[in-house]
């Protein structure tokens, strides 16, 4: 949720709503002849345009703030099961690490992946299997870790308790990421998408958030008054006041200093709500309106319960691979995370097509989709190595923000990736978010999880919901995705086979609601007779058929630095599923090594250079 927040050196005349618009010429400017957007409103900058540097920075900040809720939420959700609920300093380290890795993965995706302006960040698809794995008897936190008075966060015993759990998550994520890389770079994702339709995706994504109602409710229940106010503010800003423009002073253009309208509530609804709720908690803490006794209701709404985190956190901290120790691997964890990987891949493919439509690009061809999924797998591998406790995926919220800002430039997302890298290094930023009072977090969770559930259900728009077949598949998948994990959690002893590893795999998979619901949706949708139109696959197939190797598609989705062009390719690359396809005449398929390394803007190799073809 964001909007354009800047002025330009040469702005166009203001529109009827007097909101400043940016169209520049020349260096860092929009070039004429770019493809327009297929969305209802014209783009200010399309994917191949390069906006001025200051606009890139401002829009990058907006994308960071749009993804902020999801980035911060993942470590905070995992904190309790990692035995870290009374260690906000380590929580801040996890938040900083996920910022850093998200920035790194965003840059990889923009330059080498699908090449669309999509931000990468922590995924909720990995949260459910992670919690299922950590709920196994071997990984349940000791009782003393739940008592703040017994926890010494600097003791070696406590450090080993949480680090051995996150190392287990790291190993599972790194192995599962190899599966995602294989599926992407081998082109297998295109084959799988023939059988995965809306009736598989809808229950899978919906069940990512539905089972987390307990966690959100418990956090909000620390003080329902504070949580309710947070929810009210988020809804007020994002829904009721989103079209209210606030006058702000702007310098630039012919008018020099003048007032322009800025959709403040549309851009920062979550951030504004968090800040106001946080401020209220601070006032209630200073006035002692909130109880000081640790066991009293509402004590964790006080801001001084985590107040020492900011003073303890270093100003700069560089996350690095293996910072929590050598990752460990268990079969149960790997299978559980693979279920999350499948869900994440399916959602990302949908994000690619939506993003392309919003930024004025052709639908991504198969090689770009394959490359995007492969790079996301590489991102999950890096996330596992760095120890975020999570993987990475494409952020649907930021794809939606592209349609609001009407700035689809690839360079804006590069700026957002660089900003995330800086935030990950600046230790005080992560510490600040780790001090958010618990009921404020709970209120934010309730809103976010509701939106994620709705996003999953929205996939049903492609299918015929007047069909009793489709109603049965979706309803049965959702209900079983809630009922079966609940029963298994309460009766795990009844699923013992005598083989410990097998018992753990079965328990993790059957307590992961999105796996149960997604598997049943996939099985029933592909076995119960139904037409392609009834199943919603006809629309999807038409979208994929439009992803042809047009000149525009080659321009958008080709690799950087001339890699994959006629002067920089080889005969062997034509068999790689993730390599751009080019039609070339005889003798034109050969890698000009010097052209690849030293190619000038005209595309010609340096004079006097000896050509070496591979």
TrEMBL record:
Residues covered by region (Disordered):
1-40
Q: Which domain of life is it from?
A: Eukaryota
**Main location per UniProt?**
membrane
Transmembrane spans:
52-79, 91-112, 172-201, 221-241, 262-286, 324-342, 412-434, 440-459, 471-488, 508-528
Q: How does it sit in the membrane?
A: Multi-pass membrane protein
The record's listing under Pfam families reads:
Xan_ur_permease
Q: State the InterPro entries in the record.
A: NCS2 (IPR006043), Xan_ur_permease (IPR006042)
Which cell locations does it reside in? Membrane
What GO cellular-component annotations does this UniProt entry give? plasma membrane
List where Basic and acidic residues composition bias occurs: 9-20
MF (Gene Ontology): transmembrane transporter activity
Which keywords does this Swiss-Prot/TrEMBL entry list? Answer: Membrane, Transmembrane, Transmembrane helix, Transport
**Family, per the entry?**
Belongs to the nucleobase:cation symporter-2 (NCS2) (TC 2.A.40) family.
Protein name stated in the entry: Solute carrier family 23 member 1-like isoform X2
């Amino acid at each position: 949720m964001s909007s354009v927040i800047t002025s330009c050196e040469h702005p166009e005349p203001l529109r009827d709503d007097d909101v400043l618009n940016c169209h520049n010429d020349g260096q860092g400017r929009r070039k004429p002849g770019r493809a327009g957007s297929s969305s209802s409103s014209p783009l200010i900058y399309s994917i191949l345009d390069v906006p001025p540097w200051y606009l890139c920075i401002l829009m990058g900040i907006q994308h960071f703030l749009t993804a902020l809720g999801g980035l911060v939420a993942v470590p905070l959700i995992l904190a309790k099961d990692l035995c870290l609920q009374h260690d906000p300093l380590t929580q801040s380290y996890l938040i900083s690490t996920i910022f850093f890795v998200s920035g790194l993965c965003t840059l990889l995706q923009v330059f080498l992946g699908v090449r669309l302006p999509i931000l990468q960040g922590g995924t909720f698809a990995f949260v459910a299997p992670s919690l299922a794995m950590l709920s196994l008897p071997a990984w349940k936190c000791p009782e003393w870790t739940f008592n703040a008075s017994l926890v010494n966060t600097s003791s070696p015993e406590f450090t080993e308790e949480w680090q051995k759990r996150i190392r287990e998550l790291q190993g599972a994520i790194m192995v599962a990421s190899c599966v995602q890389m294989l599926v992407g770079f081998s082109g297998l994702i295109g084959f799988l998408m023939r059988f995965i339709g809306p009736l598989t995706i809808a229950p899978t994504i919906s069940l990512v958030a539905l089972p987390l109602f307990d966690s959100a409710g418990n956090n909000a229940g620390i003080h329902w008054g504070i949580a309710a106010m947070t929810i009210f503010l988020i809804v007020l800003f994002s829904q009721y006041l989103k079209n209210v423009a606030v006058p702000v002073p702007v310098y630039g253009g012919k008018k020099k200093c003048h007032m322009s309208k800025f959709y403040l509530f549309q851009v920062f609804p979550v951030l504004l709500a968090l800040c106001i709720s946080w401020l209220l908690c601070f006032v209630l803490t200073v006035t002692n309106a909130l109880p000081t006794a640790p066991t009293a209701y509402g004590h964790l709404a006080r801001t001084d319960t985590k107040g020492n985190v900011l003073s303890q956190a270093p100003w700069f901290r560089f996350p690095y691979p293996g910072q929590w120790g050598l990752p460990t691997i268990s079969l149960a964890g790997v299978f559980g995370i693979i279920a999350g990987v499948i869900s994440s891949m399916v959602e990302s493919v949908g994000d690619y097509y939506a993003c392309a439509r919003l930024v004025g690009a052709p639908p991504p061809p198969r090689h770009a989709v394959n490359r995007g999924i492969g790079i996301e797998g590489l991102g999950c591998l890096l996330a596992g190595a760095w120890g975020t406790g999570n993987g990475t995926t494409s952020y649907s919220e930021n794809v939606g923000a592209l349609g609001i800002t009407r700035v689809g430039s690839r360079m804006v997302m590069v700026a957002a990736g660089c900003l995330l890298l800086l935030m990950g290094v600046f230790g005080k930023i992560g510490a600040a978010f780790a001090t958010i009072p618990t009921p404020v977090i709970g209120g934010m969770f309730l809103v976010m999880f509701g939106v994620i559930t709705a996003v999953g259900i929205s996939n049903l728009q492609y299918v015929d919901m007047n069909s009793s077949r489709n109603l049965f598949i979706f309803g049965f998948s959702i209900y079983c995705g809630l009922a079966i994990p609940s029963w298994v959690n309460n009766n795990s002893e009844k699923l013992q086979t005598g083989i410990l590893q097998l018992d753990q795999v079965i328990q993790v998979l059957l307590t992961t609601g999105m796996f149960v619901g997604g598997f049943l949706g996939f099985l029933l949708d592909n076995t119960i007779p139904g037409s392609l139109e009834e199943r919603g696959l006809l629309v999807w197939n038409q979208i994929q058929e439009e992803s042809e190797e047009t000149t525009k598609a080659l321009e958008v989705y080709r690799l950087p630095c001339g890699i994959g062009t006629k002067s920089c390719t080889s005969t062997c690359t034509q068999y790689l599923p993730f390599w751009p396809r080019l039609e070339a005449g005889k003798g034109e398929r050969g890698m000009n090594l010097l052209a690849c390394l030293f190619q000038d803007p005209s595309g010609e190799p340096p004079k006097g250079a000896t050509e070496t073809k591979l």
